[in-house]
Predict the structure of Glyoxylase-like metal-dependent hydrolase (Beta-lactamase superfamily II).
Amino acid sequence: MDNVKALGGDVYEIDTRMAGFSGITAGYLILGDRPCLVETGTSTSAPTVIDALASLGVGPEDLATIVVTHIHLDHAGGVGDLARHYPNAEIVVHEKGARHLADPSRLMASARMVWGDKLDVLFGTLTPTDAARIRALGDTGSIDLGGGRRLDSHYSPGHAKHHVGLLDSQTGDLYVGDAAGVYLPETGDLRPATPPPDFDLQTALNSIKLFGDLGPQRLLFSHYGPVDDVTATLERSAEELRVWVDVTKQAHAEGLDLDHAVAMVRDRTRERYAALSTDDPETAERFELLSGAPSNVAGILHWLNKISPETPS
């Protein structure tokens, strides 16, 4: 299939074709004695993911584990659909996200407030998963991949309070979710992902440092794909966070509303991203969908208002 790519080490990247785009959200299948899917993509992507797994020889009875780095709908929106299709799969998530997979009503209501009518097109509906099938991880945990291979979970909030990074004991691959930002392979751009309500700068920087301390051989971004230059990429992740926060802090200190703050951040950061100066409008549109300035700035402002609520009149 043209949306499945072998990455070595029995790892396969699956383009979930989110909202009809290529290169938006990746799921990853780790094949072996106990096949494991990392990230489901959206609910509307579930048929695409099921077809991809079937093309790799993984049928409904074969999948052992479905694990998500966090419960945002572009990463976990397909959990309920895939849990139904793969009845033997254990569903693994951080403990702060587990109840939302069992009862997604609050999560979906919150997403509806943010996305409005776009919700159905972009994400679809997260359906409930039987709580008995969900394993909730603490700050660390381990997933058995079979043959002595395991996926070790490391709590990495900052982007979201229910976020984990996942390190493959055999390959050294680190599944970074959104904690290291959003990567665009065509241009090499890296942009932060700082949506409300959980973003916290120091927590996010600590998570990036933790990723470096784990000594991974490769970073596997959910948005999007594998990156071999681990140290430089994580340094860039931290730098991008600081740049966006510094500009947003200035807008906050000047008492600017969200729209004006977004305009200011876009103006100050535009030259950092080749995707925004490309002649291909779809690349720029995809980058904005992946890591939209309004969402990022809103998350930073939410954090700033918690730590420094007073702004000049």
